[in-house]
Protein 1
Amino acid sequence: MQSEIVASYRTRMEMDRDTLLGVTQNILEQMTLGLQDPRDGDDRHRLMMLPSFVDRFPTGGEEGEYFALDLGGTSLKVVWVKIGGRTVVDKEIREFPIPEECYDTDNGTLMQWVVDSCIGMIQAHPVDRVVIGFCYSFACRQDNLDHGEQILWTKRFRGKGLLGKDVVQVLRDEFKKRNIDAVIPALLNDSVASLVGAQFLTPHVKCAVILGTGTNCSYIEHTNNINTLPAEYRKHGDHMVINTEWGDCKVQASCTLEEDTWVDEASANPGHGLFEKLISGLYIGEVTRRILLRIARETGMYSGHDSAHSKFEESGTFDGAALSAIYHDTTPRLSVTASVLKKRLGIRKLNRKELETAKEICEMVARRSARLCAAAMVAVISREFDNDETGRIAIAVDGSTFTKFEGYRNLVREIIDDILGDATKSDRLDIMIADGSSVTGAAITAAVEGTYVL
Ligand code: BGC
C-alpha cells in the first residue's frame, strides 16, 4: 500500500526528456505570443513578457553614490553604493524583515514602512541629491523606466492595495511626506535588476533567473521583436530587457498533483502564479508536507505525532530549507531527516521506512521543480542561442532555492544539458550564482539613468 502510493507520485512527478522538451516548446510559444500582444486579463497561456524599458546598459563610466531599495518576497534591503570604473567601490546593505501587517496590502502600510526603513541609511550617507533605483519583486506594466503600474500581487502578499497604481509615484509621495526630495529614475523587477547587476560584472550574462520565495526570468530581446513596445521606443535602442513573469504561466504538464491544487487554493492569490507554485521556495515545502500527510492518512505511517496540536497538519510548517536539508541527508541512519521531521512537523519515533519515504518524497518534489525550471531556462536561452551563434552565454541565478541548495543546482545543470542535447551549446553556456546582484543592478541603473535626470 505504502509503496503503491509512493510509486504513483513518482509516476506523476518524474518527467522524461520528451515531456520536458514539450514544456520548453510550450514556454517558447507563450513567450512569442506575449511579445506579440499584451496579455488579456486572466489568459494563462501567454506570458506577460513585460518590456522593462532598460535599454541603456552601463558603459563603465558611471560613478558616484546611489541608493537602491529592494522589496522582495520576505525582506526589504536598503542599499547605499559607491560606483566607479565598472566596480562597486563601497557599499552598505541593511535588511529588514517585512512586518506581518504589511503583507495585507489593503491597510496601506507597506510603502510607509519601506520609506521609514530607509531614512537611517540616507542620513548615514549624506549626498547632494538622493538618487534611488527601486527594485520591486512584483509584476508592473511599465510605459517608461520610472513609471509602472502594479498588475498582480504574488507570494504572501494579498489585497488590492497598489494594484493599478504607479508604485514609483506612491514611493515618491511617501518620501515627500518626510521632506525628502528623492529622484527615482528607475523601477526594475528583481529579475531585471539582477540581469543588469550580473552583466555589469560579467558582460556575457544574457539572462537572469530568480529562484527563491518566488520565481521569474528576464532576458535581453531585440526591440524589433517586441510588438507591444510603443513605436518611439523601438527606435530608441536595439535591445531591451524583457521581464517574462514566467511564474504566472500554466504549463501543459501532467506532473501537477491534487496537492498543488490545494496549495493554490490556500494561497494568497488562488489561480495565479501556477508555474511559481510548482517550483519556488514558498511552495515546494508545503506541497511536500501535504503529500506526506496524505500518505500518513491513507497508510497509517507517521503516526508518532500528537494529532491534537499537530504541526504536521498546519500549513507553512515545512519550508524549502527543510526540504533541502532532507534532500542532502547522507547520514547512514537518516538522522538529519529524523531531526527535521521532528522539529518541523512534530513527528517522532520514525522507523526506517518512514524516513526513506519522506526523503524520497522530498527528492521527487525537488526534482520536479528542477526539471521544470531547467525546461523553462532552455526556452529562454534558446532565443539567445538563436541571436548569438558562437559566443558564450551566461545565465545568472539568484534566490535561495538555487543558491543555498547545492543538489538542486547540480540537477538543474544536468537537466539543461540533457534537454539541450548538444554538447557545443552546453560548452558555451555558463550558469552562475549571482547572489545579491539585484541591488547592485538597481543602483547601477539609477546611476546610468541618474546621469540623464540630474
Ligand atoms: C513575481 C515576480 C518576481 C518573482 C521573484 C514573482 O512572484 O511575480 O515579479 O520577479 O516573484 O521574486
Protein 2
Amino acid sequence: MVREDQLIYLDNNATTRVDPAVVEEMLPFLTDYYGNPSSGYGFAAKVREAIETARERVAALVGCAPGEIVFTSGGTEANNAAINSALQIDAKRQHVVTTVVEHSSVLKQCQAMKERGRDVTFVGVSSQGDIDPGEIENAIGDNTAIVSMMWANNETGVLFPVEKIADMSHGKGVFFHTDAVQAVGKVPIRVSETAIHFLALSAHKFHGPKGIGALYVNKRVKFRPSLLGGSHENSRRAGTENVAGIIGMGKAAEIAAEKLEEEQVRIRRMRDHFEELLEEKIGGASINGKDANRLSNTASVSFTGIESDAVLMLLDRQGICCSAGSACKTGSPEGSHVLKAMGLSEERLKGSLRFSFGKFNSEPEVETAASKIIEVVAKLRKMSAGARISAAV
Ligand code: PLP
C-alpha cells in the first residue's frame, strides 16, 4: 500500500480533499457552538448568524441573493427536490424533459417516474457528448413541467448550453433546472443573470465537506418542498440544519470564488499536458468529448486493447487514484451510460478511464501519473498479446 501522503489523487470529480481552512472554520461548530439554530436564546443566535454568513458566501459563488439558497443534504437531494417541486405546481403540466447523460440522481429519478407511467423524454447526445438545443425545443410540449439538464458532465466534463436552454424553457412557461454539481467552483456562474429557475450544487465537489449541498430557488418561482416536518430554511426544507456542514460549505464557497478563474487556467494547463502525454505515447488513446466545450479539469480517456478495471487495479497499487467512467460506477458491470450514449465502440467503452484534476494537484504529479499510466497500458497490452498467442498455439 502506498502511504496516503504519497497518493496522486486524480479523482476530483468523485470528491475533493477538504481544504484545511474549511476544517478550521467548521471545528468550533462541532465543539463549542452546539446550539440548535432554531432555539430562542443568544447562544443559538450565534449559530444562526454563522449559517447566514455561509448562505451569503454560497450565494456569492453562484451569483444570487442569499435568500435564494436552500441548504440540502447534497446534490442528490437538491436535484430530486427541484424536479419534485415542478411537478406539484400545475396538474396539467406533468411531462419532464431531461437528457440521457444525466448523473444518476436525476436519471434514476426520471427513469422511476417513467416506470410509474409519467411522460418523460430523454434527449440524446452527439458523439462529442453535446446536446442539440433544437431537440430540447422539439421535446417541450404544452404539458411540460420542467426541463432538467446538467451544466457539466461528471464523466467527460462536457458543458451544456444551459443558459440558452433556460431562456427557451422560460419563454415557454416551463421550469428549468440544472444539476450544476460539477460546474460550481469550476466555471463562473451568475445565476441571477440567467433564466435558470433551480440550480443544484454540492460542497464536496469544491473542497467542502460531504453530505451538504444547496438548491438555488429563483425567488420569483413557486416552490413546493419535498421534505416536510418543520419550518427550517424558510419553510423550504425541513430538518435541523447540518450546522458544521453548512459552515464548511460557506467557507469552501468563499475560497472557490476568490481564485476561480486563475486556478482553472492552471488546472486546464495540467490537464491538457496530461492528455498530450497520453495521446503522444499510447497508440489508440483518445479523449472523449475533446472537441466539445469542456470543463478545464476532466480527462475522459479511452484506450484500445485493455480493460479499465485492470488499469485501475495496477494504478491503485502505485498510489494513483482515478476512476473507470464515473466513480459511482466502479464495480458495476454495465459500463458508462454517458460514453455509451456518445456511441463509443465496445472496445473503447471497456477501456475508458476518467482522470479529474483539482487545486491540490501539481505539474510533477501529472508527469508521474502519465508515465505510470503509459507503463501500465503497455504492460497490459503485452500480457493480452501473450495470452492471445498462447491461446492460438
Ligand atoms: N450530480 C452530479 C453531476 C454529480 O457528479 C454528483 C456526484 O457525484 C451528484 C449530482 C450528487 O451529489 P451528492 O454526492 O452531493 O449527492
